Amino acid sequence: MLALAGTASAFSMCQPKQPEVVAYVQPPAIYCYESLARPDCYAQPLPGEYNRMIGFYGPRPADMPPQQPLEFTTAGPAQNN
User: Fold this and answer.
1) Rounded-to-10 torsion of CA 50, 55, 57, 63
2) 22 or 55, higher pLDDT
């Protein structure tokens, strides 16, 4: 009887592991803005505060103006004479 129990145990170790099922949950939207200390983040965008927005995850606010491209200069620092 002991040999039979050992065989069942060895058989169970040879079975392939079943894949773990993980459910995907959509993370909540978050909108973060500059402040005097650390960023303030909210679940809803703050209307009219897009100039302080430092980032967001979620849908783009419908009334948010399009981003302007950054202007880079290659002239270097200003010369003080």
Assistant:
1) 20
2) 55
